[in-house]
Structure formats: C-alpha cells, structure tokens
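Researcher: I need the complex structure. Ligand is (2S)-2-hydroxybutanedioic acid. Inputs:
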Amino acid sequence: SMLRSLARRTSTAGTRRGFASESAPDRKVAILGAAGGIGQPLSLLMKLNPLVSRLALYDIAGTPGVAADVSHINTRSEILGYAGEEQLGKALEGADVVIIPAGVPRKPGMTRDDLFNINAGIVKSLCTAIAKYCPHALVNVISNPVNSTVPIASEVFKKAGTYDEKRLFGVTTLDVVRAKTFYAGKAKVNVADVIVPVVGGHAGVTILPLFSQATPSANLSSEEIEALTKRTQDGGTEVVEAKAGKGSATLSMAYAGAIFADACLKGLNGVPDVVECSFVQSTVTDLPFFASKVRLGKNGVEEVLGLGALSDYEKEGLEALKPELKSSIEKGIKFAHA
Ligand code: NAD
Ligand code: LMR
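Model: Output:
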C-alpha cells in the first residue's frame, strides 16, 4: 500500500494536494550498512516513504556515493550520508528507527549460523553505539543469523542499561512476504489480499508459516501445505543458490525491510491496528525470543499476540523448531557476555 500511495502521489506531481507528509511528524531513520546489497535498495525505498523527514545512511565505506545519488530524489526526507566509524554517532543521534542490514551474506552451502562469527561482532558494536547515541530508537535487526543477533542486541542494551524489550525487533517480514507470494500462487487468489502469519525464528525449520490461518482460505491438500511450508523455510536458500556465490536476497529483503520500518513509523505516529510479525522478546512459548504477530504503537511493541489455533502439522513444526531456536538464542547471549 506504501508503493501504491507513492504511485498515486507521483501521478499528481506538481500538486501538493493530499500530501500526507505535511502533517506527519518529523521522524529520523538511520540505515546501518546502507551501501550494501540490501542497504542500497532499502535506502531508495525509505527515501520514498513520506513518513521519513531525515534519512541517515551509514556504512563503513561507499556511503557518500549512495547518499549523493539518493539525495537527488524529490521526496520529503533530507539525506545524510556518513562513512567510517568516527561518524557513526552523528548518523545515530536523534534516530527514531534504526535499521541494521550490516554484515556478510551467505554463499551456497552455508547456513545462516555460518555467518555468526563475523556478524555477531558487527551487531554487537553497532548496538553499543545505538545504546550511546539513540537509546530510545526502535531497532530493526536484519543481519543474520537473526535468531542470535537479536539476543546479542538485547544483552548489549541490558549491559548499557538501555534495554527496553518493546524497542527491539528481528525483521522476519521477508518470510511473510514469501509465504504470501507462494500461497497466492498455489491457492490461485489475489496476492494483494493474502494474509499469512509466520512465527518462530528466521532460519530453516525455525521459520513456521501458519497456512491454516491464511486468508482468503483455500482448500489445499496436506501435500500442498507441506510443499508451501518447505518452500517458505528454504526461500532464502533458493535465492542464495540462484545467485550462485553473489550473495543472498537483497531486493525482496529491501522491500520487506521497508514494509516493516513503515509499520514501526506508523505505530510511533499513533496509527491504530498496525500488526506485523517480528522476532521479539516473548512469552508466547517457553523461549525468551519468538516471532509472532506484534501490534506496534507509540512505544514500539504494544502487544505480542498469541499463536491462535494451530493445525496438527503446525503443532509438530512448533515443537520441532524449539531446540534449534533455543540453542541459537543461547549462542547469541553467550557471545554477548564473553
Ligand atoms: P552486503 O555484503 O551486500 O552488504 C553488507 C553491508 O554491510 C556492506 O556494505 C558492508 O560494508 C556493511 N558493513 C559491514 N560491516 C559494517 C559495520 N560494522 N557497520 C556498518 N556497515 C557495515 O550484504 P547484504 O546482502 O546486504 O546482507 C546483509 C545482511 O543481511 C547479511 O547478514 C544477510 O544474511 C542478512 N539478510 C537478512 C535477511 C532477513 O530476512 N532478516 C534477508 C536477507 C539478508
Ligand atoms: C533470507 O531469508 O533470504 C535471508 O535470511 C538471507 C539468507 O541467508 O537466506
């Protein structure tokens, strides 16, 4: 709907009529890793979002070019480019939402956990700076393995005394985007109408789409549901293999990241009934972090929603994912303490 409203606005170029941003509050968004495969298209999409008034693009290298390029787009936000660690504080100061797609992506044959050794340290240092420069920002963690990097972020914030579980999110929107696309294809329904919750975590079997709750409903066989579930769980790997060494999903991830950040901004702005799935601190299961539907509000998480009724197949999937998710969470917590 963001892109639809953008198209509408473009078609009335030159008039200011219906330009929602004139009444929208000032909001600063910072993207850390803005010059990367996800960072660049995400910077573009956030520049198109009329809820953003300042967009800070930070990376360890390459940001001046990306920032100059994006800054020529005639939309509301002012673009601020920052390169190198000594500019990280300036990038973060005053941010309402920080999006983190910094870190290395997978190559064929790797699991997301194989990225831990490099990305854990990157997320730890970026979150240390967030605690210092914008402790009240909503933090959207994209860097993999999300099942571990979100617990790392929580421990960094706890240590700094700034942790608020309402403001920390693992971005699992791409799993929802995929589940919607694959379901619409199989169920032969309009993809724009589809709603499917995806719960659990963001790696392999920990990704649990709840197709029994999908709407519009369709009479899919258990074989079809199983195939859709597997394809959603392996969606990342499908892209990694197709890119054959050139990285993982970037464009679909940028889209998903932009949708989730837009939901965070709407929540901050007091728009009612903003609900997205996200990997957050949770009491929905016995695990300390879990992805489920979350209602977003002026303070971030307003309510973590329960799982609803599950099919037997989904109940089995839920039990099967817990050991892996538990150990990935514990690995992150242990790293942050070391
Ligand atoms: P990329 O290599 O193209 O870009 C990563 C960027 O991060 C680079 O520009 C790099 O310079 C930057 N970077 C590295 N260290 C940094 C630091 N300390 N501070 C700031 N920037 C830093 O990778 P990509 O394809 O954009 O993927 C980025 C991450 O997102 C990977 O970990 C990938 O696995 C993950 N990812 C997550 C999802 C998800 O659904 N959550 C989806 C796709 C990718
Ligand atoms: C994805 O789901 O596409 C990302 O987590 C990237 C990956 O490594 O699969």
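Model: Summary of the prediction. The mean pLDDT is 94.
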